[in-house]
Amino acid sequence: MKFPFQILAAPRLIYLLPVFGVAVRVAVWVQNRSLFIDEANLARNFCERGLWDFFRPLDHDQFAPPLFCFFQKCSVLLLGQHEYALRLFPFLCGIASVFLFFYIAKRVIANPWVLSAVLWIFCYSDLFLRYATEGKQYGCDLAVALGVVALAIRFAEQPFRPVMAACIGAVAVWLSMPSAFVLFGAGLFFLKKNHANGGWRATLPVLVAGLFWLLNFALYYWLLLRPSMAISPLVEYHTQWFFPLFPRNSADWAKAADLLTTFPYYIAGYTVVAKLTGIAGTLTGLWFLVRNRFDTALLLVLPVLVCIGASGFGQYSLIPRMLTWAFPLVLLVQGMGWQVWWDTGHKHLRLLWILLFIAVVGLQKGVQYLIRPYVLEEIRPVLDAIAQDFRPGDVLYVHHEAWPAVAYYRECHTRREQYFLGKNVVHGNWNQQPDLPTVSPGGEKPKRVWLVFSHVVSEATRATVRADLEVARKYARQVRAVEAVGAEGYLFELSN
Fold it and tell me: CB 12: neighbour CB atoms within 10 A?
């Protein structure tokens, strides 16, 4: 007797999930949201640098692989300095990632219910949608990681081709820094395969290709990673995301637990039930892989473990956006664990499993962006409103977290004439509250001052904005407020 809900997971219906996953990514890209703070800082490099000038550390406290930067620069040269061009290559990577993930998932997960749950999480998770449509490298990292795994699965039963493997690996290294972790797992995967089929002599082609990958990564490290690690703001910011490999006290243990629970948070959900379901599924999947499919563990698990180890030595940050490539690998392990539950449990438990899957996938609501916009911080509408009311002699005082986007729109964007807003622009460290009467760059007292805030995405930031406005209101009159998601602008008039 068929399970009463089996029709919902029919094979043909499963194909609709990636189709709508692609459609959502198209919709979010077309919506054309404003540039995010780090996205704007990286975009300024594509405005200020030449096509071949990305083999040295970037400006504005940014880091991105040189080949990714090359493609981004080509995009803006061909299409112009605007959001669509900056997000085109990550968008194409996002589309490719959907098909690559579907290809891998079908080969490691047979149960249609589990496959549906895993595909839903990947296709409609806000995290994966965001970096499939943002001008940063994380969507590219995801596509490269899945591409390496998919190619390893595709060619697992064929003779190893060292020249092709060497070229693919070298391109991956210069296109995506965390590809080194995935290549390490893929290299051991093929070493094991070749040794099992032909002894140690058969491993020589794999070792040659692996050596070529290592040489490329060594050059990459020397040219880019090593100098970037000398940029103190970058290192200081990411220190909190380094994994305590050898915990020495309760704080280290708490930090380790917090960093590890990042994985179930992003591949299962934020509720207690979702996290427990994700953790239990991942642990079950690990147990299954080690016992039954060790080759697959080399592809899916080993890269993540090496990444955590590198973080323990201060070489890689476990901040969520830098784990975008790793989350789908753990998601596949989680799905394999769920499949073990389904296959080995009593048939009367299957309704419980389905309810748990629904509780998890119901938290991933990205399909809603087909009919409503996906927004983070919309500074562009604020600048549009200011531009309509900006007068000669007005001063624009920009909060330091708003400056990257304002600078890009003033200096680089195709509509920069509209966003220029005169030369009386001041920005700085707003750890000190603004002194409006002396804010003009020339030292004269202006009649009107615009305050611009962005990255207003937390209660702490909103409290800072309110405190700064209260100080300004003591000696100036607020006459206008312009508010958008994550961004605000205020017009003050100063008395004589």
Answer: 6
Q: Specify the pLDDT at position 431.
A: 54
Residue 432 has which token pair?
A: 């000190």
Cα gap 185→190, rounded to integer Å: 9
Those residues whose C-beta lies under 8 Å from the C-beta of residue 424, and which sit 6 or more positions away, are 393, 394, 395, 396, 440, 441, 442, 446
Q: How far apart are CA 223 and CA 235, in angstroms?
A: 17
Q: Which residues contact 329 (CB under 8 A, 6 or more apart)?
A: 145, 149, 299, 300, 301, 303, 304
Residue 367, classified by CB atoms within 10 Å of its CB into exposed (0-12), middle (13-18) or buried (19+), is middle
Length, in residues, of the chain: 496
Q: Summarize pLDDT for 197-225 with one digit per residue, the tens.
A: 888 888 999 999 999 999 999 999 999 88
Dump pLDDT digits (tens) for 276-301. 999 999 999 999 999 999 999 999 99
**C-alpha pair distances (Å), 17 with each of 26, 101, 390:** 14, 12, 47
Q: In the chain, what is the straight-line distance between the N-terminal and C-terminal CA atoms, in Å?
A: 86
pLDDT of residue 434: 60
CA dist 367 and 17 (Å) reads 10
* Nearest Cα residue to 160 out of 134, 133, 129, 196: 196
Q: How do 425-427 and 477-484 pair as beta strands? A: unpaired
Stretches in the chain below the pLDDT threshold 50: 1-9, 430
Q: 173, 181, 172, 148: which is closest to 301 by C-alpha?
A: 181
pLDDT at residue 316, as a whole number: 92
Element (H, E) at 97: helix 83-108
Q: What angle do CA 54, 93, 74 make, to 5 degrees?
A: 35
What pLDDT score was predicted for residue 4? 45
Residue type at 125 in one-letter notation: S
Is the Cα dihedral 88, 90, 94, 97 positive or negative? Answer: positive
The tokens describing 310, both together, are 């590198």
Q: Which residue is listed with tokens 């068929």?
A: 2
Give the three-class secondary structure for 243: coil
Sketch the domain layout of the chain as residue ranges: 6-370, 379-493
